[in-house]
Amino acid sequence: MKAFAFQRVTDAEDAVRALAARSGSMFLAGGTTLVDLMKVDVLTPDTIVGVRPLGLSSIDVSDEAITVGANVTNSHLAWHPVVRDRYPVLSEAILSGATTQIRNMATVAGNILQRTRCSYFRDIHALCNRRQPGSGCDALNGFNRGHAVLGVSEHCIATHPSDMCVAMAVLDADVHTVRPDGTKRSLPFGEFHHAPGDTPHVEVSLEHGELITHIVIPHLPAARRSHGVRDSLAAAFGVDPADVRVLVPFVGGAFGAGLRVWPHTILAALAARVTKRPVKLVLTRAQMFTSIGHRPNTIQQLSLGATRDGQLTAIEHISTSSIGMSDELFYPITNGTTDGYACPNVTTRATQIRQSVPTPGWMRAPGEAEGSFALESAIDELSYALGIDPIELRVKNHAHVHPESGLPWSSNALLECYRKGAERFGWSARNPKPRSMRNGRQLVGYGMARAALIAFQPACKAIASIRRDGTAFVRSGATDIGPGPYTVMTMLAADCLGAPIERVQFSLGDSAMPKAPAEGGSGLTGALGNAVQAACVDLVRAFVGRVTADASSPLKGCRMEDITVRDGGIQITDDPARFETYAEILARHGLDEITVEGESAPPGETSSTAMVARAGRFVPFTAPSTGARAHAGAYAAHFVEVHVDPDLGTVRVARVVSAVDGGRILNPKTARSQIIGGIAGGIGMALLEETVSDRTGRLATTSLAEYVVAANADVRDVEVLFVGQPDSMSPLGTKGVGELAIAGMGAAIANAVYHATGTRVRSLPISIEKVLGNEA
Amino acid sequence: MSQAGIAPTGKHLVVTTLCVNNTTHEISLDSRVTLLDALRDVLGLTGTKKGCDQGACGACTVIIEGQRVLSCLMLVAACEGQHVVTIEGLAVGDELHPMQAAFLHCDAFQCGYCTPGQILSAVCAVEEVHAGVPSHVTPEVRQTVNAVTLTDEEIRERMSGNLCRCAAYPNIVAAVRQILSAEVRS
Q1: Cα dihedral sign for A607, A609, A613, A618?
Q2: Which end of chain A has fewer CB atoms at under 10 Å, N or C?
Q3: Residue A404's CB: how many other CB atoms inside 10 A?
Q4: At residue B124, does pLDDT exceed 80?
């Protein structure tokens, strides 16, 4: 932000005089436009005159009109009982835009004077006649889906973003002002704003320094990851990793962005080295679209062959995806197709094309989220071509063993997911004919899809201690990006040690702690949980080792298989009277604590290098107890009801039922939250989220106003059912549920949209244009 | 970026008196400093989060004079004499505000980054419902008596000024519903 003087004034005359005195001065009211645009240097006033202290914040009602002060907030106006009663169009128009917080800040005058949301206007590196007269207009041939159709000129096609102004114009409101010379005037609303014409930079009929004081509306007639960062920083600066310590007790979100070290981390460390001071580096929202990875673009071709009775005979899945010019990224889009269905002939090919784009990164369910959209959409299309119910078709082609290796699944409750999910959802009420179901004037569509994610478990270590006071302290250098390792590992350790949960502390997020993998690939709960369980079991074993030869212990002579843990101690299973607490054992042996390290290893045939460990997702696991080889994965069936407006093409996801086989669920509450998060991510992917770069390669969607993610109102009735059994390939029995639910969601929604409308949308997001059939 | 002006130096210092969580501060800051940066970096109140820094995500929501607003788009200089409540001002000692307790009970967060803003927003949303003010989904804005029936649709709309990438939305709705139904019972 450029420097400016801030001037306080107390009355309107002072304000206009203060402003008129300098050509580069501007009024500040709510700040929702001005501060925002000053931050990106689009507006660079040298003086700011704050007008909130002027009052002008009342709404006065008379028999002829309602007078609205310039500083009245949008909320105040929309919620005012008389406005609601007499001018509902005004309330509704205001409430349809922005958020409550913004409406609580934004003033009426500010709303009228707000600037266009055209992304080229908001980017000082783009050409814009409105911002810089005569420079040109990048929007004309750029990203202009939301721009004006009427009233445009060859110099500008931007729109005024206010909904309120439309209502004001309809209501024949007048804008009252005071000019720098002290005279007052009023302007009809219809004459206040200018169409761009030859002078798009002249937006309104105000002279410099003229202040809006009030609006008069006449009455109507009858009216993540600590060790990876440590090692990367050590390598970048040529220092010993032991001399680098990374602390990340909390990480907000990440969804894959934390799986590698991005440039800003190195830059922050570099800046601290140069300045010899602590440095804090905050990326702008726009920088986050270019410097911390993104889901690559894909073009996919999918061909299916089947017999008339619905038996798949061939699947071909070819994908091309984007990658940056210099980085490498293993991103297998078609992998999920290789073992998705029992089919004798399957070929897949995933190709990456280098482009001059920011480097993509692994995003939630990398490969599966994208690939499943093509596969599960195609299976749905096949069901209509054959006249077979989509669930029946999937059941018919269910892979009872791994279709390529012929080895069994370690566990697979997908058929149960189909059955229980369909029952809960009420699938039997579905009329199979597209465009056959309605709710009022809304078209109703039911769609479903299968989701799968092959289990992944990297190597992990943890340490567990029990201290003299009987408290347990368990830790590992893992991170918690939100799924809840803090909670779940505390519960697990308490369970393994038989200790009250409030006596157990679990810590993470410190590179000085034992080495753990990044939280990704839905593998941390399994990896960390198995390590924590191993450490805790060995800790109990260490206590048993102490007491078994101890003549003064009631547990003398016990073996591991004889004991049960409870109430912060150990008892002989068959004799509850033979019990001793950990604290008593430590005290008698004169020990401050006993500490044991535990580790878990990938149950597959993998080496320890990161890349091969990741490839461990795709080879069979070996059961620790029996040595049997099998493929492991988590499964789900999504059922979606959409409501589509037949005239406007708007799609709403009315409800979702997901039946999930995640193996053992350690904490149903947090696991359910993970599935809900994946479903909502899938709703965003299917309907809202799109990174657009225009012809020049410029990203046009670099704020959350342009890159739209699901808000609360977009995520309605969501139900999660857990089915299946603990998995046999891991001591803990988990399979990983963090990414599972976003797989298949895009297709489930697209399939429901087809059922509702008869229009098959094969590209994401499913925008209004595509639903209305104007764009493939 | 905008954080550069946080030190009490610069060409345009403005002295502002504001009251945060019942403590009055007189601070002299560069005119460019937003309330968000001042709360976090000057007053040490890091509960208020910087999400997008451009008024689109709601993570920086605070309550000023009883209304939920976005601190990222508010200059400190424009807050003269204002009363600000942040997430740190909600609990009384160790006793959580009922909305904080409801968020915990309902698992209404995952990574927690948006949570302070969500909770403050939810507190105000409940107040707004009590005041009977309408939202975008209120069927009839003209009705002022018993104007708002608190359906899940209403809660979702009123809480849509706060984005949650983890999408704890259904659980956030449950938390707000829990508070409102507890009020109805008592």
Answers
A1: negative
A2: C
A3: 11
A4: yes
Q: What's the pLDDT at A776?
A: 47
pLDDT in tens, A154-189: 999 999 999 999 999 888 899 999 998 888 999 999
| Cβ neighbours of A658 in B, within 8 Å | none
Q: Tell me: the pLDDT tens digits for B140-156?
A: 888 877 778 778 999 99
Cα–Cα distances in angstroms (integers) from residue A507 to residues A396, A463, A510, A663, B109, in the given order = 47, 10, 8, 25, 19
pLDDT digits (tens, 9 = 90+) for A76-128: 999 998 898 888 889 999 999 899 999 999 999 999 999 999 999 999 999 99
> What is the amino acid identity at position A574?
D
Q: Which residue has the tokens 């009245």?
A: A72
Among candidate residues B90, B77, B144, B149, the one with its CA nearest the CA of residue B121? B90
Contact by Cβ (8 Å): B114, B51 = yes
In single-letter form, the type of residue at position A741 comes to: A
DSSP bridge pairs for A636: A451, A660
pLDDT digits (tens, 9 = 90+) for A38-54: 999 999 999 999 998 88
Neighbouring C-beta atoms of residue A23, cutoff 10 Å? 11
Q: Chain centroid to CA B90: how far?
A: 11
CA distance A517 to A186: 67
Residue A461, classed as helix, strand or coil, is strand
Q: Which residues neighbour A383 within 8 Å (Cβ) at sequence distance 6 or greater?
A: A389, A390, A392, A393
Side-chain-side CA neighbours of A227 within 13 Å: the count stands at: 16
Query: In chain A, how long is the greatest CA-to-CA distance?
Result: 102
How many whole angstroms separate alpha carbon A431 and alpha carbon A426? Answer: 11
pLDDT surpassing 90 at residue A603: no
Beta partners for A283?
none
Report CA torsion sign: A501, A503, A504, A507. Answer: positive
The tokens describing A4, both together, are 């400016």
- Is pLDDT of A452 > 90? yes
What's at A587, amino acid-wise? A
Contact yes or no for A299/A762 (Cβ under 8 A): no
Which of B111, B167, B163 has the alpha carbon at shortest distance from A101?
B163
Nearest by CB to B57, from A84, A704, A713: name it. A704
CA distance B25 to A594: 50
Task: Give yes or no: A584 in active site.
Answer: no
Task: Please determine, for residue A300, whether its predicted confidence score (pLDDT) is greater than 90.
Answer: yes
Distance CA A462, CA A596 (A): 9
Other Cβ atoms less than 10 A from the Cβ of A608: the count is: 10
Characterise B66 by phi-psi region: left (phi > 0), alpha (psi -120 to 50), beta (else): left
Token pair listed for A583:
């604290």
DSSP H or E stretch at residue A174? strand A174-178
Option in B54, B69, B144 nearest A36 (CB): B54
The nearest CA of chain A is from the CA of B183 a distance in Å of 23
Using CA atoms, how far apart are residues B76 and B54, in angstroms rounded to an integer? 16
DSSP state of A588: H
CB contact under 8 A, A680 and B167: yes
Q: Tell me the residue type at A266.
A: I
Count other C-beta atoms under 10 Å from residue A235's C-beta: 13
Q: Edge to edge, what strands does the sheet with A569-572 contain?
A: A563-566, A569-572, A575-581
Pairwise pLDDT comparison (B5 vs A515), residue with the higher score = A515
Chain B residues lying within 8 Å of A8, measured CB to CB: 77, 80
Is A282 close to B1, i.e. CB distance below 8 A? yes
- Report the complex ipTM: 0.83
DSSP letter for B77, please: G
What chain A residue is nearest to B158 in terms of C-alpha separation? A100
Residue A607 has pLDDT above 50, yes or no: no
Per residue in A659-717, pLDDT (tens digit) is: 999 999 999 999 999 999 999 999 999 999 999 988 888 889 999 999 999 999 999 99
